[in-house]
Q: What sequence folds into this?
């Protein structure tokens, strides 16, 4: 009999395979008949509780030592409930947006061999269903299951969460539970309760609109209709896919009169810069006899905004938005000896389109790799207007909190891992206040006033790809740095592991290991260096400025040559590139262009690639700015 068929049931998070937090009092809750006495058996002990007038019950268990698997049996007049395969260990709440959500499957270019044989029943993840609500805090989740690590399921795990759990298990040999609550593109305000949002201020009108019955649903329905109409018209008008005509994906099409374009590149500065609609691109590659009957992998980097890709007229892949790396499996029998035609139907919906530079564009057949960079033929299939913007529930205040955080109220966690901020870079000046409010809000929600928050500072990234005003990410990193003033917080600096051309860098393992160091020091009290250098104070040193740091560990070091990305300014506030030398636990900075320096900044750009101030433990310094 399923849990849904029972009169007696537990909240969704309390299900087979769950991991509960060790060494703290535990609360498990659910529904039964009103005023029903329940008896529970767990680890050889018996406990009891009684449901209230509406049938809600809460079972309280004393602190439990790590171990498992165990069973929890709960009995009452309305039925019997057995929760099996329970582990006791450390449970972490994973919050944020797409870089926390990013699954292991998206990191296989770096970690495929490492995860191929992954098998660890002591590491488990519960994926909270993605849902928003404006009808107040929801009492339970609509679904979700606990999954243990094996070669299949690991691909669905949060990559950052998995590598953190792997390091944590290796260190402490206790079960690790991950509760994933991240949603790609979500704004921080959607993760705040209505009370917290109102305390921050500035959202009252938007909250009121969203609470109106049917407001979001009607708006979304209208926008979905406009979007469907946009795609319908584009499909009907596309010259490359007209009934009765040779499709532009065909190997038989004569494209000799098509224009040429060198790829990969974004189309700014070309005649396609302001183009929106459908454009077809074609390239021929010649293969030898070994192609007969062989499968292959087609890599097409990242394409703005969406694509359908064909080889010899056979569709081999489709991606509906710009971020995912295009890695299309080519089935045996598609390729042939001689000329083969690759055709890509690109849909550009809002900003300028193109093929993102610095990515891999190649046809791989066993050890053979054919580079696809260079000249491609192209022709416009149809022109359209821009695609209407969607109203995103996960941009709206309190929506995700109500549906994805509130149902977990009362759960015990060892700490929170947080990776978010990209979607708030349009207004970085608000972020520190919102983040501090979120930390306080969640600590109140989970009944843990000192709940540890370990978070990721944004990495380096070329924000022009997102058409942001320069400097927004630098300002948001500063807001994250300032949040270290909130007690029981720690920050992983990632200014050296981003990818300039990718909002979703694959290297989640180094980030996870830095968060693991922070947990080991802050939560478990290990006397280790867990943070890169942080600004302590700035002082005048003749015609130079001297920066003092904390978290220097075994000392400061410049990785890969002289220090880079230091800049200095005078009273006019105009910054100039500066020279910098390490002197003990300080850095001395100067420039002949600024004889009387007043201010300084380090790595104060959205994409300061090559920023190289570290401590000898290999942890990078956070970007900062300071003035006298």
A:
């Amino acid at each position: 009999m399923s849990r849904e068929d029972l009169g007696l049931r537990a909240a969704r998070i309390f299900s087979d395979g769950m991991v509960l937090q060790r060494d703290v009092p535990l609360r498990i809750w659910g529904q039964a008949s009103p005023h029903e006495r329940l008896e529970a058996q767990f680890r050889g002990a018996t406990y009891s509780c009684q449901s209230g007038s509406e049938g809600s019950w809460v079972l309280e268990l004393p602190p439990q030592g790590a171990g498992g698997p165990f069973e929890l049996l709960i009995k009452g007049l309305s039925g019997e409930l057995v929760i099996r395969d329970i582990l006791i260990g450390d449970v972490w709440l994973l919050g944020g947006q797409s870089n926390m959500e990013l699954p292991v499957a998206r990191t296989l270019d770096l970690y495929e061999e490492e995860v191929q044989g992954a098998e660890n029943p002591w590491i488990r993840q519960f994926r909270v269903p993605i849902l928003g609500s404006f009808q107040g805090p929801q009492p339970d989740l609509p679904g979700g299951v606990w999954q243990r690590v094996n070669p299949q399921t690991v691909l669905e795990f949060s990559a950052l969460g998995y590598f953190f759990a792997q390091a944590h298990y290796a260190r402490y040999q206790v079960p690790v539970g991950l509760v994933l609550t991240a949603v790609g593109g979500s704004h921080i305000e959607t993760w705040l309760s209505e009370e917290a949002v109102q305390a921050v201020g500035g959202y009252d009108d938007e909250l009121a609109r969203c609470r109106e019955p049917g407001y979001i649903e009607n708006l979304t329905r209208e926008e979905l209709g406009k979007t469907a109409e946009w795609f319908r018209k584009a499909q009907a008008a596309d010259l490359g896919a007209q009934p009765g005509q040779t499709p532009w994906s065909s190997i038989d099409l004569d494209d000799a009169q098509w224009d040429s374009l060198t790829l990969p590149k974004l189309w700014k500065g070309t005649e396609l810069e302001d183009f929106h609609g459908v454009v077809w691109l074609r390239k021929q590659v010649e293969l030898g006899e070994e192609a007969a009957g062989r499968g292959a992998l087609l890599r097409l980097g990242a394409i703005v905004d969406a694509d359908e890709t064909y080889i010899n007229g056979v569709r081999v892949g489709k991606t509906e938005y710009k971020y995912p790396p295009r890695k299309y499996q080519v089935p045996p029998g598609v390729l042939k000896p001689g000329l083969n035609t690759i055709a890509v139907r690109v849909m550009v919906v809002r900003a300028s389109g193109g093929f993102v530079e610095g990515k891999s564009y190649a046809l791989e057949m066993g050890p053979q790799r054919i580079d696809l960079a260079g000249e491609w033929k192209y022709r416009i299939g149809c022109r359209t207007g821009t695609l209407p913007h969607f109203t995103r529930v996960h941009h709206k205040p309190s929506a995700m909190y109500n549906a994805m955080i509130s149902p977990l109220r009362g759960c015990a966690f060892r700490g929170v891992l947080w990776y978010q901020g990209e979607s708030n870079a349009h207004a970085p000046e608000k972020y520190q206040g919102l983040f501090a409010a979120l930390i306080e809000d969640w600590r109140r929600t989970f009944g843990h006033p000192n709940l540890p928050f370990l978070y990721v500072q944004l990495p380096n990234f070329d924000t022009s790809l997102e058409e942001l005003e320069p400097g927004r990410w630098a300002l948001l990193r500063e807001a994250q740095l300032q949040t270290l003033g909130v007690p029981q917080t720690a920050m992983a600096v990632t200014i050296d592991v981003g990818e300039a051309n990718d909002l979703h860098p694959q290297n989640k393992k180094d980030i996870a290991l830095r968060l693991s160091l922070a947990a080991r020091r802050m939560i478990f009290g290990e006397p280790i260096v867990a943070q890169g250098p942080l600004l302590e104070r700035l002082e005048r040193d003749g015609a130079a400025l001297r920066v003092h740091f904390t978290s220097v560990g075994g000392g400061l070091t410049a990785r890969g040559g002289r220090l880079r990305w230091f800049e200095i300014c005078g009273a006019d506030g105009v910054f100039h590139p500066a020279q910098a030398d390490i002197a003990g636990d300080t850095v001395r900075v100067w420039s002949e262009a600024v004889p009387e320096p007043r201010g300084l900044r380090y790595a104060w750009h959205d994409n300061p690639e090559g920023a190289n101030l570290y401590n000898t433990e290999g942890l990078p310094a956070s970007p900062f700015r300071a003035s006298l």
